[in-house]
Amino acid sequence: MKAEFTDGKITIGPEGKALYTNSGYGRPAGKRLSLSGEEALYLLGRDKIELDGYDFDTLASELSADPKFMRRFLLYRDIRERGYVIQTGPHDFRVFRRGEKPGTGRSQFMIRVLAERDLVGFNEVLDDIASAKNMRKQFLVGVVDDEDEITYYEVKSNEITEGVAENSPAEVTGMLYGRSVVIKTPPESSLEKAWFGTRLDKERLLLSPPEVLYLLEREILKIRDTDISSFSEIAAEEDHEIESKYVVYKDLRDKKQIARTAYKFGHHFRVYSGEKKHSELLVHAFPSEEFMPMSVISRSVRLAHSVRKKMLFASVERNNIEYIEFARIKM
């Protein structure tokens, strides 16, 4: 089947209609069929079309003037060979339900293609999630690594549900030891039952900085000559992330979720609903304008999966928080 490459567009004459109706390739353009670069290269490599002056290598070389083309092609080929119909779409691609195609079925996924070293901007991710949701599709990220293997992640907003944790312990007075706050309280006090603090000894409970800020703000904790503003300055001297961490900690606690440090997992918080003995979530907080390497996200998701937890990234813009879940899936 003959194709033409003119003015940057690859098209097939009326005979190309069969490619569209039978297998979902291309888009009708009048009497012709218009192919994306990924579709054309795929079909050329399988001897389904002929293109004067081009073989697979020369076409791939020309189309790769766009540095992102080859990663998109590799994902396109992978999806096609898994038995799905895939077309370019409002993200990078849209993928139809297995066994369905344009004109006779609905697309199920919207896919954004990334490389393993790409920096991920979560404001852009949120825009993609919202766009896919408005179209009633699942949003996926397909990551092409340096060995051309592809990993798929479902990415979605996650609403933190209300837990059952005790949130209003009795008022206490603390002592400031440098940058640490210690409460003198017997075992099984209301503070400890509400999962605040860590035992220093039988008489003393040591509070983490987010716990101190939360209890100060709610006027449950009093410290001589120290209020939430002054302690924020003290905490920030050691932890430049404390501002965004505290916004997330406060939100989780207000929702009766128990947030404890997740340092051993490489993240800010492990989260318990109060109903289970084991944490269900790992949460990492960061300002919304920051970027994160895709490789870091990949490690985080794999680790969370290995310990049977969901991985959430909390994007903080002032006091507004968007929880974004990345979960690895099989296509």
TrEMBL record:
One of its GO terms (biological process) is tRNA splicing, via endonucleolytic cleavage and ligation. Residues 69-152, 243-323 form the tRNA intron endonuclease catalytic domain. Residues 1-55, 173-232 form the tRNA intron endonuclease N-terminal domain. It is an enzyme of class 4 (lyase). Its EC number is 4.6.1.16. Keywords: Lyase. Pfam families: tRNA_int_endo, tRNA_int_endo_N. GO terms for cellular component: cytoplasm. GO terms for molecular function: nucleic acid binding; tRNA-intron lyase activity. InterPro entries: tRNA_endonuc-like_dom_sf, tRNA_intron_Endo_cat-like_sf, tRNA_intron_Endonuc_cat-like, tRNA_intron_Endonuc_N, tRNA_intron_Endonuc_N_sf, tRNA_splic. The keyword Phosphoprotein does not apply. NCBIfam families: endA. This is tRNA-intron lyase. The gene is endA.
